[in-house]
Design a protein that fits this description.
mainly alpha; 440 residues; globular
Length: 440
């Protein structure tokens, strides 16, 4: 797994590989970027809406914190397992249709959730929701890696991460008020059916893929795992998702049960974290692009941002567990700021390392490992709260994963350069040509 030996060879630049699409295709893609950000926004509302309704669902079904944690985790069982197939699908078939099908499945699952009445039925529909949503990030990486040049890729990725943050922010702020007034069932049904309108502009604006690169069809996951940086991005994504899913799934319940906030106060404080994340990730993504345009290296910009964000959010999460009053609210805001910094470059790094040929597969592999955190974080948090009667240990463990992520992004991930996927193909061609020349 030697990165230094497997990155770009100046004699054989990846752009020269047969079937590889040119990168400078940003014309007309801004509206597609808007739709991608909107889809991530809807995606995170749909996966976090159960957390918003959790107090009511828990009361109606009479379930424990441990059972609620399992209900949260059920989404990630299939969401994580489907990442590798999803990455293969978007590299193998036209991402326009693959993404559209996934969106249809998850929006339908959201609407159906509001009609169910049993604990087991809710687990089943959360599993289906995970299947539909699994297509999102492999699709986004495939599109950005194919249509945006590297020095203009930081801001588009930041826009996607802003959608990720605004989903829980507005979901908690307004969803909490809607659930309190009308109940959680109308919230789910309306949200799922209204989301289907997104498909209309998507089918109209997203261009079809012209052809499929030959090497993309030959690219395997084992080839990606030979890169040291793949292991670093996978571990780093696990750490990001651990603290992200801890906040998305448990912050509303923590504020209500652990801090005795009212529903309105919970909505304000909970949304603050994600609003601050949306602002910081957008600003930081733009700053990173400008930083590179002044001559800073891609590796130093991307990796230093990741290390800063992870160390910072670990400190703010640990401080959140024992602060009070205005200082507690300040720590929530600081958590949001560092959350935005820590996520805005993660997929930009992956898109550069993988390049257009492997963006879907690498993203699927990385997100598969990363979303194992979705199996662990919600369930482990519920067990810890049941056993200790407090969220404090859950915060400390989450902070520890953030610091582990800093190590992974900073030192396990190698130089942020596109891997030379054609090296082995060229070696095979040279070997074959030599054998032919020696044949009588």
């Amino acid at each position: 797994m030697n990165d230094a030996a497997s990155h770009e060879n100046p004699m054989f630049p990846p752009a020269a590989l047969p079937g590889l699409p040119a990168l400078d295709k940003t014309a007309g893609m801004n509206r597609v970027l808007f739709l991608l950000s909107l889809s991530v926004f809807i995606n995170y509302i749909d996966r976090s809406n159960l957390a918003i309704a959790a107090p009511l669902v828990q009361h109606e079904l009479g379930i424990s914190y441990s059972q609620l944690g399992i209900l949260f985790s059920a989404f990630f069982w299939t969401y994580g397992l489907m990442q590798i197939p999803a990455g293969w699908l978007v590299d193998r078939f036209d991402v326009k249709w693959v993404f559209g099908a996934g969106f249809l499945v998850w929006s339908g699952a959201t609407a159906v959730t509001g009609t169910l009445h049993g604990f087991v039925a809710l687990i089943v529909i959360r599993v289906i929701l995970g299947v539909g949503e699994s297509i999102v990030f492999p699709s986004c990486s495939k599109i950005l890696g194919s249509h945006f040049v590297e020095k203009r890729r930081g801001f588009p990725n930041a826009i996607l991460m802003a959608g990720l943050s605004l989903g829980p922010a507005l979901g908690i702020l307004f969803g909490g008020a809607v659930v309190a007034r009308f109940g959680w069932r109308p919230f789910f049904v309306t949200l799922g059916l209204a989301s289907l309108l997104w498909l209309v502009p998507w089918l109209a604006w997203m261009p079809r893929r012209s052809s499929q690169p030959v090497l993309s069809r030959q690219m395997g996951f084992l080839r990606i795992l030979r890169e040291r940086s793949a292991w670093g991005t996978c571990l780093g994504q696990f750490c990001i998702n651990y603290y992200l899913y801890f906040l998305v799934m448990w912050l509303p319940s923590y504020l209500v049960r652990g801090r005795n906030f009212s529903a309105n106060d919970m909505a304000k404080a909970g949304s603050l974290v994600f609003f601050m994340s949306a602002v910081s990730t957008t600003a930081w993504g733009k700053l990173c692009d400008r930083w590179m345009n002044t001559g800073a290296s891609l590796t130093s910009v991307r990796k230093s941002s990741m290390v800063l964000g992870h160390i910072g959010i670990g400190i703010s999460l640990a401080a959140t567990a024992f602060t009070q009053g205005a200082v507690f609210i300040a720590m929530l805001a600081l958590t949001g700021i560092f959350l935005g910094i820590s996520v805005c470059n993660s997929w930009a790094i992956t898109q550069t390392l993988a390049g257009p040929l492997a963006a879907g597969r690498w993203t699927g592999l990385q997100n598969f490992v990363g979303n194992l955190a979705g199996w662990v974080a919600p369930a482990l948090t519920g067990i810890l709260v049941d056993k200790t009667g407090s969220f404090r240990w859950a915060f400390f463990i989450t902070a520890s994963f953030a610091w582990l992520g800093a190590v992974s992004w900073g030192w396990v991930v190698g130089p942020v350069e596109q891997c030379d996927w054609g090296k082995h193909a060229r070696t095979g061609l040279v070997t074959s040509a030599a054998a032919d020349a020696l044949s009588p």
